[in-house]
Here is the input.
Amino acid sequence: MSRFHRIVTHGILIIVCILMLTPIYWVLKTSVTGDNLFVYPPSIIPDDPNLFFYVEAWYTVDFVRLFFNSFAIATLVVIANLFLNAMAGYALTKQFPAKGLVLTFLLMSMMIPFHATIIPAYLLTADLGLLNSKLGIALPTLSHIVCILLFKSNFEAVPNSLIQAARIDGLSEWRILTRIMMPLSKPAVATNIILSFIWSWNDFLWPLIVVRSQEQQTLPLGLVSFLASFEDTTGSLYAFCVLVVVPSMLVFLLAQKDFIRGLTSGATKG
Here is the structure.
């Protein structure tokens, strides 16, 4: 690639990055200034920034309780996804009757939106006595088909000779999965953690349906209660949003390299 093409490519990438980061910067700026969003011309540099709106957002609702509920549910979802998806993905690397039918069923299930399954999911959760509980909130997200197929793709890249050697050494299938397959599939593990955490952390509709008390509310539900507390919520609302988004951004940044490798690992083998 010539120098001119590199300059053009980097210039385009810089412009795209600026366009993508502008909304994030605007949210951060508004959260420390409380500027009116409809003022023209808008101010680029924050004028007299302060943390008042963060303090207001923290104390208006019981933020610590909301954060703990969301974190506890997200942790439960992440752990369940790691083990359930890994076991299912490992099983799909084996040959067994109707394997193609199982894969077809999983792929077809991905086409069904969650909104179409809310009623049976609610009835099942109610029959199990899990309404208004953390386990009930986490129940529909304890496993994701996308993550199962991701584990399957990563496990298939592990040399079969290594698995055969482990069996000769007397390792059970469970120990092969936990001590060989998963350590060799760190990109898939990281991708599962990031996706399941973010999906659980940002979930609003399902908790809204199954939660009955304020003690079990999550951060997205707390945001609704927060909006009902004020008439003018511009600065505090954006501060609350920043507090909600920061944990998921940190999880992504801590494992972004493995996350990218996990998404692309199925495209290349060998």
User: Anything to note?
Assistant: The two ends are 27 Å apart (CA to CA). The chain has two domains: 1-50, 54-267. DSSP finds 14 helices and no strands in the chain.
